[in-house]
Amino acid sequence: SPDAIVSSLTEAATLCLSTRKQKEDPKMGPIIQRLGAIVGAEHVLTEARDQEAYATDWRRKFFGKPLAVVRPKSVEEVAAVVRLCNDEFISIVPQGGNSSLCGGATTDASRSQLIISLTRMNRVRSIDTANNTMVVEAGCVLAKVQEAAREAGRLFPLSLASEGTCVIGGNLSTNAGGTAVLRYGNTRELTLGLEVVLPDGEIWDGLRGLRKDNTGYDLKHLFIGAEGTLGIVTAIVLKLFPLPAGHATMMVAVDSPARAVEFLGFMQSRCGERLTGIELISHLCIDLVAKHFPETQRPFPVAHPQYVLVELSDSQSGDTVRALAETVLEAALETGLIRDAVVAASEAQSKSLWALRDNVSEAQQKEGPNIKHDVSIPASAIAEFIATTNDALRAAIPDVQLVTFGHIGDGNLHYNVAAPDGADPHAFMKNEQDRVNLIVHDGAARYRGSISAEHGLGQLKRDEILRYKSPVEMAMMRKIKAALDPLGIMNPGKVL
């Protein structure tokens, strides 16, 4: 069976590697020299102090000890490194900006796995404004991709709080969503073609900027969301869009998540495709941001249970879309759907409102350890999911703190759980994480949701997914893995 084949090959590769390491020095000197001959000795990092930034994940949950960190500059160098690893049974962990929230880009502690960092592959290769596409290398920081598109008079709409540090290859590896999915889709919908180095070192050139190509299996989708387990994406053809001529940012206060979902439908019916983003933010999120970012201006003079941040954009001037926002909000206030509302009067005010949302994760990190969740459920079930899951958690752990925010327009909630006030957060994480995860993830499954909307599985949720995916699904995934990576060298221990 495919499972038995993968298991046998993995055991054989481990045995070969173990035998080789016994014969050579701990850093596998000859291998290191050959890697240096490919990418340059200065781009093969073997000292722990040089590897630290690559070996520790963003949340500091996973601490790897790689054999080396290799930093190729071209797809040909990536392919040569992968061929060497394939020949020598060396496991590979592809890495972009190392901003994974699930340990998807961290090695184990065996000093037998190689990190291939793509941060030097950071060029914008080309922009075709007539075709509304751009070709970028996988190591491009997302903000640089956005800026290059903007300089060409186009919009690349993927937008995340971490866009100044995350890279486009990592975004693709987890099929990142961000704040504009409602209008533009996930990274998958924004990708037209790929260049991929396969596990045997072959290069697949699929950099086609076509919206229609029905010539068999659409192979690019195998690698999007695969977290580097099937190959290394080195370049991407991305969709571009016309730059909006105007936008309007607003924050509204509502009584409950149920009201927020009603407001979503209200805005969709009146604004149509102009509704670019709509984010749900609980009052506790605002409190945390205000606490850890003292310069923060609260949006209203009094506190409210829930807030909804809305972005409209349009091909018409800013005055036109702002007038639409004010008209729609006036109607929502008259019907009692919302408690209060504010519309940004300037670009600075717009950025200030978005900072309330973008700084939630960092504020949580400053506050202390918390149990993070990245679930998705149908938008229609969001209010019921929050109510039932809140009740279940509070029954299990009285006074637990629930920090809920996310992309209500596409059903993606970051449903995070922190220790009760005054409790030891580290003890809470150690003693309650499994129980909390079970309650939250079972809750998502009850509504036919997912335990990972845009952060991936990595090693954090690798075993947990077995509870929620059927044996048929898991068997299909393993067959694909065995077909493309028969030696099991690509990002082992992640996803599967």
> What's the shape?
globular
Measured by DSSP, the beta-strand proportion falls in 15-25%
Which blocks of ≥5 consecutive residues have pLDDT under 50?
14-27
Q: Count every helix, treating DSSP H or I runs of 4 or more residues as helices.
A: 16
Please report the total strand number as a whole number.
18
Tell me about the largest β-sheet. Answer: 7 strands, antiparallel
Query: What is the strand arrangement across the widest sheet?
Result: 15-12-14-13-17-18-16
Radius of gyration: 23 Å
Structural class: alpha+beta
Rounded mean pLDDT score: 92
N- to C-terminal distance:
16 Å
Residues in helix, %: 25-40%
Describe the fold and architecture.
The structure is a single chain. This protein is of the alpha+beta class and 496 residues long. Helices cover 39% and strands 19% of the residues. It has helices at residues 2-23, 29-39, 48-55, 75-88, 142-151, 168-173, 181-184, 220-223, 257-271, 283-292, 318-334, 347-358, 360-367, 382-396, 425-446, 471-484, and strands at 44-45, 68-70, 91-95, 113-117, 124-128, 133-137, 154-155, 191-197, 203-206, 232-239, 241-242, 246-254, 275-282, 306-314, 340-343, 374-376, 401-407, 412-418. A seven-stranded antiparallel β-sheet has the order 15-12-14-13-17-18-16, with helices on both faces. It has a five-stranded antiparallel β-sheet with strand order 5-6-10-8-9. The protein has a four-stranded mixed β-sheet with strand order 1-2-4-3, with helices on both faces. The model is unreliable at 14-27 (pLDDT under 50).
